[in-house]
Write a structure and sequence with these properties.
Layout lengths: L2 E6 L3 H13 L3 E7 L2 H8 L6 E4 L8 H6 L6 E6 L5 H6 L4 E4 L4 H18 L12 E6 L2 E6 L3 E6 L4 E5 L2 E5 L3 H7 L5 E5 L2 E4 L3 E4 L3 E4 L2 E4 L2 H10 L8
Parallel strand pairs: 1-2, 1-3, 3-4, 4-5
Antiparallel strand pairs: 6-7, 8-9, 8-12, 9-10, 11-12, 13-14, 14-15
């Protein structure tokens, strides 16, 4: 499966350059180019994007402001002519910070960094089969090794994700959609835009919610049917 990319830049030549670079890498697919953050925001609300190439200085809404409006932003590679925003890029957990003019060699290194980061999330081909399966999650500027069997559920909040573990919690800026892709769907079920649950910790299921350790997590309308199917239950009538 190819990585779906979105390019957001108000400069036509910059978009054309990135278009050409993306076309050279077989594992990438450019699904759209946008000339403003507002256009990108309208598009990204209806289409799943894996990797966002984002300019910063744009009219009306700059790149950093745009990212702050997204509840679950995709992975981001910053593309800009300005060095000044590097600290902010770190704060949003950007994969990389590319300074224009961007060479293909530098672009390719940045893409490889994205794939390396994705590979860190899952280290076993079939993690459900192994009690020792784990992922790495970045929090507090460190990569934390987390056993899959210790994850009870995951909650997406305004600009971060809270991972509820056995005996503790961890807060990360990884977005919930990336975590959903990395976790084995046989065990981890997306029940709501804001919740992923480990089926091993589900105590009860009603028409409206699942119970995990005494807490009731609601089904989202868009996720309920597929979630119940993964849990081998029939869809209940709304």
């Amino acid at each position: 499966m190819k990585t779906k990319c979105l390019v957001v830049d108000d400069e036509p030549l910059a978009r054309k350059l990135l278009h050409g670079y993306i076309a050279k890498i077989e594992s990438l697919e450019l699904v759209r180019e946008c000339n403003s953050a507002i256009e990108a925001g309208n598009f990204i609300r209806t289409t799943k994007i894996d990797l966002l190439f984002l300019d910063i200085q744009m009219p009306e809404l700059n790149g950093m402001q745009f990212i702050s409006t997204l509840k679950n932003p995709p992975a981001v590679i910053i593309t800009t002519a300005y060095r000044d925003f590097a600290p902010e890029a770190f704060d949003i957990n950007a994969v990389d910070y590319l300074l224009k003019p961007i060479s293909f060699e530098r672009f390719a290194k940045s893409v490889n960094r994205f794939f390396d980061k994705q590979a860190e999330l899952v280290t076993h081909e079939n993690p459900i089969a192994s009690p020792s399966a784990f992922i790495y999650l970045k929090a507090d500027r460190k990569n934390h090794r987390i056993m899959l069997s210790d994850i009870r559920y995951i909650e997406s909040l305004d600009d971060y994700v809270k991972v509820y573990l056995v005996g503790s919690t961890l807060i990360t800026r990884e977005n919930i959609t990336s975590l959903e892709s990395a976790l084995p769907s046989q065990s981890f079920v997306r029940i709501h835009r804001s919740f992923i649950v480990n089926s091993a910790f589900i105590h009860a299921i009603s028409a409206e919610a699942v119970e995990v350790d005494g807490k009731y997590l609601p089904f989202g309308r868009a996720f309920k049917k597929s979630a119940l199917a993964l849990l081998n239950l029939k869809t209940t009538k709304e």
